[in-house]
């Protein structure tokens, strides 16, 4: 993904980041607004050691050639800049915008200077720390039908809860059987109520197939209407 300034002066949006022990990154503060309002946001340079509370965002890459122009204010230069980012990144920012208060996000398409290969390499190498410091890691699974997506996510949560509830007991039993060289074959039918059709629709989509979920500490499978 590449954030391309729409004019040469837009490169001033990005100031150099520290690459020493005091790891710096950028956070995007998205101003409140309704669904149809233009996106208003500001980009701040912060140290991860004392960064304000923020949520990191993972989103579907989609077609990198489909772009959206986004206006970003830089308080360090007191100027606004227009950059081109993947349309899926812009859609994610819009969907995660709150109606009544600012929302602080880390999203790679804006928070990393994609035109600076050295910065991009260094930031990607430290993404584990960026995700670990986040209050929650929010995943945008594309833009499926709202009702279908809601049912699918509820099913995922139901299955996850059952696995969490049962994992300790089953893990202890499996360990005991293994220590005593007893062949392990446990059939424990799923009791959670799931919507198979909704899950099939979500998991068969190209969006989910291209989603990268490695190293996420906490995943918030949030659903937002457009």
Automatic annotation (TrEMBL):
Residue spans crossing the bilayer: none
Location of the Heterokaryon incompatibility domain: 54-166
Lineage: superkingdom: Eukaryota
Pfam families (UniProt xref): HET
Record protein name field: Heterokaryon incompatibility domain-containing protein
Organism: Zasmidium cellare
């Amino acid at each position: 993904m590449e954030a391309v300034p729409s004019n040469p002066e837009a490169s001033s949006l990005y100031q150099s980041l520290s690459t020493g022990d005091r790891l710096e990154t950028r956070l995007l503060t998205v101003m409140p607004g309704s669904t149809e309002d233009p996106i208003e946001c500001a980009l701040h340079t912060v140290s991860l050691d004392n960064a304000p509370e923020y949520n990191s965002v993972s989103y579907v890459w989609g077609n990198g050639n489909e772009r959206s122009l986004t206006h970003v204010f830089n308080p360090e230069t007191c100027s606004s800049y227009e950059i081109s980012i993947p349309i899926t990144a812009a859609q994610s920012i819009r969907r995660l915008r709150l109606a009544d208060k600012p929302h602080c996000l880390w999203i790679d398409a804006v928070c990393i200077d994609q035109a600076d290969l050295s910065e991009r390499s260094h930031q990607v190498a430290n993404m584990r720390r960026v995700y670990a410091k986040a209050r929650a890691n929010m995943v945008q699974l594309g833009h499926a039908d709202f009702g279908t997506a809601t049912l699918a996510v509820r099913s995922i949560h139901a299955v996850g809860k059952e696995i969490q509830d049962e994992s300790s007991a089953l893990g202890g039993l499996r360990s005991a059987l293994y220590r005593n060289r007893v062949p392990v074959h446990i059939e424990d039918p799923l009791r959670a109520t799931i919507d198979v059709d909704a899950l099939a629709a979500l998991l068969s989509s190209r969006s989910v197939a291209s989603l990268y979920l490695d190293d996420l500490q906490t995943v918030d499978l949030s659903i937002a209407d457009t």
